[in-house]
Each structure stands twice: as C-alpha cells, then as structure tokens.
Amino acid sequence: MIILMGVAGAGKSMQGRLLADEKGYSWISTGEILRVLVTGKRRQEMLEGKLLSDDEIIRLIDKILELIDVHEEFMLDGFPRTTRQAEWLIEQAKKGRFNITGVFHLAATEEVVLERLKKRGRVDDTDTAIRKRFDEYHQVTLPIIDHFKAENIPVFDINGDQDARIVHDQILKNLP
Fold first, then answer.
1. Torsion-angle region of residue 64: left (phi > 0), alpha (psi -120 to 50) or beta?
2. Residues 116-141: what's their mean pLDDT?
3. 156 φ, ψ (degrees, to nearest 5)
C-alpha cells in the first residue's frame, strides 16, 4: 500500500491518477468516494469542511479494502487523516492484512493550495473551507507523519508546490 498524504490541493489525487494509469495500481480516494456516497446533512457538513468521525471513515475504508486485492499494490489518498486512523491502519498491517510500502507526503504552501483549489472550482472549495482544511491538516494530520516514522514506515517528503510531472518523477524514484 502506498499512502498519499497532504493538504487538499497538494496534488494527491493528481499523483494517484498518474500512478494508477502508469503502474496499474488501484487508487482509493476517500474524497471522491465521500462526494459520491455522503448525502443529506452529513454532505452539507462535509461541504463546509467538517470531517467524518474516525469510526465512520474507518468503517468505510475497511469495507473498501474487502473489495480489492490488498496483496497487489494499491494507493490510499486522503486516509488516514487522524492519529486514530493511522493507528488502525498500522494495526491492520501488523496483522498481515496488507503491507505499507511507504507514505508520500506532498507538502504544499497555503498560497499554492488556495490558487489550485480555486481553479478546480468545486462547491466545497470556499476560502473558509480551504483555510479550515489547512488548519486541520497542521493540527491533526501532520503529526501522523511522525507516527509513521516511529513505526519505521518509510516516509518521503516531497515538495507538492512543484509541477505535477516533477512530483511524479520523485515519487517513482522512491518506489521499490
């Protein structure tokens, strides 16, 4: 399993698509899945930048992992986002459910992220929602990187502000 991490707009989905096309990996984008499956009040909250609970997202990922061949390389994009989610994922790997090949952390500046997200024009990409995602990323998601490192899982920090092709080449260079 390859884990793609970074704030919204860092280029995770772009890299996920490129790797899926080039390497034939399954690409699991929690953002894409949630935009399709979540409805009603929860959808409105999500559009405002609120994350689903750990229990909700873990149940969803658990079900998705039952649908794919986890012994073939695949990518997770947008999961984990909290320490609890990361601990669940690491526990599943320790139980032998799958292997974690590495974590690719795409670091991007707020200026670049704001510019990219405004260009894509999704309804949930308001200034307020983007800033909220950036705050949550710094407070909740970034500490996960250290958690992975403490578990001796390879973490590759990549400058996500760069052109997508350069980022892609750096990811390929670090794949086994």
1. alpha
2. 87
3. -115, 110
Q: Residue 112 has which token pair?
A: 């670049």
Averaged pLDDT, 46-70: 88
Report residue 103: phi and psi, to 5°.
Answer: -115, 125
What is d(CA 75, CA 163) in angstroms, rounded to the nearest whole number? 21
Percent of the chain with pLDDT over 90: 73
CA dist 170 → 30, 136, 157 (Å): 23, 26, 10
Instruction: Strands of the chain (E only): list them.
Output: 2-5, 26-29, 74-77, 102-107, 155-159
CA distances 39 to 5, 33, 101, 161, Å, are 25, 12, 33, 33
Tens of pLDDT, residue by residue over 77-97, are 999 999 999 999 999 999 999
Instruction: Please give the model's pTM, rounded to 2 decimal places.
Output: 0.91
35-49, 115-129, 137-151 — which one is most confidently predicted on average?
137-151
The residues, ordered by sequence, that sit 6+ positions from 35 with a Cβ below 8 Å of its Cβ are 46
